[in-house]
Design goal:
The chain folds into two domains: 1-52, Ubiquitin-like (UB roll) (Roll); 87-182, PH-domain like (Roll), CATH 2.30.29. Helices cover 40% and strands 37% of the residues. It is built from five helices and ten strands; from the N terminus they run ββαβααββββββαβα. It is rod-shaped.
């Protein structure tokens, strides 16, 4: 049973108010109708007489949270789409039993989901493919076959990574090296989308715990 505060009007036109315990608003309306009272408003009251949250009573709060979660999912999808066209590129090279370098080039959506993985065995050199202000690394093995990332990156970061990898190939004492780079502007945009989605989810969780 819940307590409802109501306002209504008598057949004479006089406005009256009152409280009534019932299982639902519909029950209150039915009981008052039997007394020839036309109800104009009903509000459920919490324990202690505090009016109930209208959003919670009417069910609008769950719907609002659902919409918030949908918007959060949209932001995640936007971040994934941006990262799909500008993925994080990682390079991992290790020494094999013959002392030669085996390298793996991986492109990751949001830095997590593998979009493309390529491997080159017994790498002999690492070079740069350039296209204006864009560039990417190309690994060539001893047979002359090469692998390269499908997506381009900024030339400045590519030069730094290439320098580190070339040093690794020249120094047989190093056992392993790992480097990565990403296009900065797309990374910032996708990061902002993910942060927005995370904050929206946190708000929904906190509201659910409060209720």
């Amino acid at each position: 049973m819940a307590t409802f505060s109501w306002k209504g009007r008598l057949p004479s036109g006089q406005e009256i108010t009152g409280e009534l315990e019932a299982r639902s608003k519909e029950t209150v309306i039915e009981k008052l109708r039997e007394q020839r009272i036309v109800v104009s408003s009903i509000t459920e009251r919490r324990t202690g007489g505090e009016p109930a949250d209208p959003d919670r009573v009417s069910g609008r709060a769950p719907a609002s949270r659902s919409r918030t979660l949908v918007v959060a999912i949209v932001f995640v999808a936007i971040a994934a789409a941006i990262s799909y066209f500008a993925p994080v590129t990682t390079y991992r090279c290790t020494r094999n039993a013959n002392g030669r370098a085996d390298c793996v080039v991986t492109e990751l959506v949001l830095g997590v989901y593998p979009l493309q993985v390529q491997q080159s065995v017994s790498v002999a050199s690492v070079d740069i493919d350039s296209d204006g202000d864009r560039s990417r690394l190309a690994f060539t093995d001893r047979r002359g076959q090469s692998i390269r990332a499908a997506h381009w990156n900024e030339s400045s970061s590519t030069l730094d990574v290439r320098s580190d990898l070339a040093s690794f190939l020249a120094d047989s004492k190093q056992h392993e090296i790992f480097r990565w780079h990403v296009r900065y502007l797309p990374a910032v945009l996708s990061g902002m989308c993910l942060l927005t989605a995370a904050l929206m989810i946190v708000v929904v969780v906190l509201k659910s715990l409060r209720d």
